[in-house]
Amino acid sequence: MRYEDVHPARAESIAPIRSSLAAFAAAHGAAPETVEAVELAVSEAATNVVMHAYIEAPQPGDIHVEATVDDGVLYVAVEDTGRGVRPRPDSPGLGVGMMLMAQSCEELVVTDRDPAGALIRMRFSLAPE
What we know:
Layout: E1 2-8, H1 14-27, H2 32-53, E2 62-70, E3 73-79, H3 97-104, E4 107-112, E5 118-125
Antiparallel strand pairs: 1-2, 2-3, 3-5, 4-5
């Protein structure tokens, strides 16, 4: 069971990404609180791409999203090909996105592939605890 999609790194892409992954999680048996956690974490990951990944690029790139389900576990990956994970002193955000992602999922792995972008991987149990 797999979901893959690519969206332009624009603010209007965040809601469709969130909705699609929430629907994918729900369709595979995620409890309502898990669906909410997926929505929050994915929204934050996509927002990070929109706000930070392509800030130095002449035009925004893409947000690559992938989700798989294996043995009652949902794995989500959000990937970009932007500038990697670097501080942004002029950031318009509050700086809590990574913390919210980490609190929403059971495991968060952030891979900086500077200058080839960033990969955020998250793991969620589908069964309620």
